[in-house]
Write a structure and sequence with these properties.
seven-stranded antiparallel β-sheet; SH3 type barrels; Dbl Homology Domain, Chain A; 21 strands; elongated; about 575 residues
Length: about 575
């Protein structure tokens, strides 16, 4: 965050004809038309710094608003040194000074210099890599250094701590503006918004606001005002680590929010309404979708900030192990959020697959599941003394779906039932005679009902395939537990959108229910053939697969790629 004096000095330089450049410290991802997107390390030409929070800048030919807190230090290109001359300038030399001495470059061995060019034709800003001395000419690059010297690790750590505290306070202000400036006003206009629309547009933003206020209160308690480098903020992240999972719901909902806003903005009434909300709350000149993007950007920024803090935290510092643990936690949070985002992007394909299965009965897959974990063909026996049947199995979170191939068209599937995985335990079965089924088995495993004596036995062609299924079942239970921990689920809005997408695709392609779209085969592909079990085998014979000469249908290849499970 830049001080008011630095902001005033920047405006004075701009108005005086100087060219002021800012270097980006963080990536700025935006969806608003008037915002300027950039990556860390990009150089931005500052055109207006009159607002302390948002500046107007230019990269190449693009202009737009960007957060002032996303840049750390500035370079100035001018044609006069009349206001800053501690030493007489040498002919044809370049003078260097730091416009923001508090903020420093990210890498200790790289000093980014701020050039004031004395040549008539002007010059290009450049960077030096040698260390600079305070207030004297650096003979290696012929530039006068007027800023602070290269700072030690404690000062660098203090800078990072100060930046984290500043951005947290700034972020709380954004969340307050969204909740009080937009959401509260929308709730008053029942003639324009219903509850479902507001849930889609704003998601759980109020939950995030409440969580962040508690998080920032604890950060403030750990913040050492006199000696910021002594602050111990790592434990705050660890204490609140479970709370950060609420961002998963918000990030997963964000695309739907943008789509809903886009539809509303086609009506001029909504454009005027949101603009009136912004002006009433005295918010900066950014569209509502830009504000709603802030939480997505924020959760992605935490690992970057903690990584930089760890870099400047000495091993003997009392906060070191906590910061290292916090970094691992926040990286895991962002990784899991991205993974769940990927799952939501695949729900259209899952709905499309279900629409392709003939004779479907019962609830939709998406009512309980959101991920295909594994799929393949197995021999299946349901009850003692029952006959072996070959089925195609699809393991989703919470349920195992059974399908049968058409006898003539092997690319057509018929629904034959499902097994509720929440009610069953998976057990390995040893090769040999099975007492429950009174048959000899090989490469087998069982699903046993927790509340009754119901048992299903499955037989794979090879031991490797059996082991892959056992690992897949373990992965399914792990996924269910993680989803319950963070409250992950598919919203009714997302289910309706998936159903609409299926109808649209079906209509455009002229696909009927007899021609299934792509659906997933096993992540660990079996060999190219089909696996069949004769249904008239004697009970005393060993049940295992034999390979068929028929090759797999092409549509198996696509849907299985949705499954994240690997060998």
């Amino acid at each position: 965050m830049h001080t008011l004096s630095e902001q005033f000095a920047t405006n004075m330089l701009i108005s005086g004809g100087s060219i002021v450049n800012a270097e980006a410290v963080w990536d700025h991802v935006t969806m608003a038309d008037r915002e300027l997107a950039f990556k860390a390390g990009d150089v931005i030409k500052v055109l207006d710094a009159s607002n302390k929070d948002w500046w107007w800048g230019q990269i190449d030919e693009e202009e737009g608003w960007f957060p002032a807190s996303f840049v750390r230090y500035l370079s100035v290109l001018s044609f006069s040194l009349s206001k800053v001359e501690p030493h007489p300038p040498q002919p044809q030399t370049k003078q260097v000074f730091y416009l923001n001495p508090i903020a420093t470059p990210r890498f200790q061995n790289t000093t980014s210099k701020l050039w004031v060019n004395q040549e008539d034709g002007g010059g290009e800003p450049s960077e030096g890599t040698s260390e600079v001395q305070n207030g004297h000419l650096d003979p290696t690059n012929d530039c006068l250094c007027l800023g602070s010297p290269l700072q030690n690790r404690d000062q660098m750590r203090a800078n990072v701590i100060n930046e984290i505290m500043s951005t947290e306070r700034h972020y709380i202000k954004h969340l307050k503006d969204i909740c009080e400036g937009y959401l509260r006003q929308c709730r008053k206009r029942v003639d324009m918004f219903n509850d479902d629309q507001l849930k889609v547009i704003f998601g759980n933003i109020e939950d995030i606001y409440r969580f962040q206020m508690g998080f920032v209160r604890d950060l403030e308690k750990q913040y050492n005002t006199d000696d910021p480098h002594l602050s111990e903020i790592g434990p705050c992240f660890l204490e609140h680590q479970d709370g950060f999972w609420i961002y998963s719901e918000y990030c997963n909902n964000h695309l739907d929010a943008c789509m809903e806003l886009s539809k509303l903005m086609r009506d001029g009434r909504y454009q005027h309404f949101f603009e009136a909300c912004r002006l009433l709350q005295q918010m900066i000149d950014i569209a509502i979708d830009g504000f709603l993007l802030t939480p997505v950007q924020k959760i992605c920024k935490y690992p970057l900030q903690l990584a930089e803090l760890l870099k400047y935290t000495a091993l003997e510092h009392s906060d070191y192990r906590y910061v290292a643990a916090a970094l691992a936690v926040m990286r895991n949070v962002t990784q899991q959020i991205n993974e769940r985002k990927r799952r939501l992007e695949n729900i259209d394909k899952i709905a499309q697959w279900q629409a392709s299965v003939l004779d479907w009965e019962g609830d939709d897959i998406l009512d309980r599941s959101s991920e295909l974990i594994y799929t393949g063909e197995l021999s299946w026996i349901y009850q003692p003394y029952g006959r072996s049947q070959q089925r195609v199995f699809f393991l989703f979170d919470h349920q195992l779906v059974l399908c049968k191939k058409d006898l003539i068209r092997r690319d057509i599937l018929y629904y034959k039932g499902r097994i509720d995985m929440d009610r069953y335990d998976v057990r390995d079965a040893t090769d040999g005679r099975d007492d429950d089924f009174n048959v000899s088995v090989k490469n087998a495993f069982k699903l046993c009902n927790k509340d009754s004596e119901e048992i299903h036995i499955f037989l794979a062609k090879k031991p490797e395939e059996k082991n892959r299924w056992l690992r897949a079942f373990h992965e399914e239970r792990k996924m269910v537990q993680e989803d319950e921990k963070i409250g992950f689920e598919i919203s009714e809005y997302q289910k309706r959108q998936a159903a609409m997408t299926v109808r649209k695709v079906t209509k455009q392609k002229g696909v009927n229910r007899c021609t299934p779209p792509s659906y997933p085969p096993p992540q660990d592909p079996l060999s190219a053939g089909q696996y069949e079990v004769s249904e008239d085998m004697a009970q005393g014979e060993v049940f295992e697969f034999s390979q068929s000469k028929r090759g797999q249908a092409p549509f198996w290849q696509n849907f299985s790629r949705l499954a994240p499970f690997r060998k």
